[in-house]
Design goal:
- The complex is a heterodimer of chains A (111) and B (117).
- Chain A is built from no helices and eleven strands.
- By secondary structure, chain A is mainly beta.
- The model of chain A has no long low-confidence stretch (mean pLDDT 93).
- Chain B is an all-beta fold and 117 residues long.
- Chain B is globular and about 40 Å long.
- The chains are: A mainly beta (111), B mainly beta (117).
- At the A-B interface, strand 5 and strand 9 of A face strand 5 and strand 10 of B.
């Protein structure tokens, strides 16, 4: 079993929909959680970063961490076709520790 | 800054041939990482360097893979001999040494799509 699990999708939604992307993990030592966005034929880029449990909002994006359930989410409001990409969750245990990535969820937002 | 630069963007080779992938990290970044991405296994860390020194190569699949970082602005990943199962997208990434800061923000290149026939 992988340390970090993500549904690979694809997830197809109409423009304007609210999107929920999720990851589960098995190692309770993870403290720092990130979401990377990867467009086709490009490298991943950091989208959101959160520490421990709670919510963080940045524009249309909200990252949520529930450490008690070992579950993290990324919500996208008013989704746009330009949001179509693969979203990878990533996490690490402490400063300087290497990132562990999920497999990524492919999102398609249709006009 | 132009970001992390990788070359070539695409490489098609025949089984048994030597393949060399190249990376120029962002200037001032102290860490450099080589990742491999496949549909089956996702993004896997192969090796990383700190200040040009290899720190952890436990992700390198086997002796056919080697990586070097002769200076702060250049790194190579070599596969010799290449095999069809090495076909994947290989990414280079770099980041600053932020000391006690906890944000592991990696900057990725656009990757090299390797196809071994």
């Amino acid at each position: 079993q992988k340390e970090v699990e993500q549904d690979p999708g694809p997830l197809s939604v109409p423009e304007g929909a609210i999107v929920s992307l999720n990851c589960t993990y098995s190692n309770s030592a993870f403290q720092y959680f990130m979401w990377y966005r990867q467009y086709s034929r490009k490298g991943p880029e950091l989208l959101m970063y959160t520490y421990s449990s709670g919510n963080k909002e940045d524009g249309r994006f909200t990252a949520q961490v529930d450490k008690s359930s070992k579950y993290i989410s990324l919500f996208i409001r008013d989704s746009q076709p330009s949001d179509s990409a693969t979203y990878l969750c990533a996490m690490h245990k402490y400063a300087g520790n290497m990132l562990t990535f999920g497999g990524g969820t492919r999102l398609m937002v249709k006009p | 800054d132009a970001g992390v630069i990788q070359s070539p963007r695409h490489e098609v080779t025949e089984m048994g041939q030597e393949v060399t992938l190249r990376c120029k990290p962002i200037s001032g970044h102290d860490y450099l990482f080589w990742y491999r991405q496949t549909m089956m296994r996702g993004l896997e860390l192969l090796i990383y360097f700190n200040n040009n020194v290899p720190i952890d190569d436990s992700g390198m699949p086997e002796d056919r893979f080697s990586a070097k970082m002769p200076n702060a602005s250049f790194s190579t990943l070599k596969i010799q001999p290449s095999e069809p199962r090495d076909s994947a997208v290989y990414f280079c990434a770099s980041r600053e040494d932020r000391g006690a800061a906890t944000n592991e923000k990696l900057f990725f290149g656009s990757g090299t799509q390797l196809s071994v026939l």
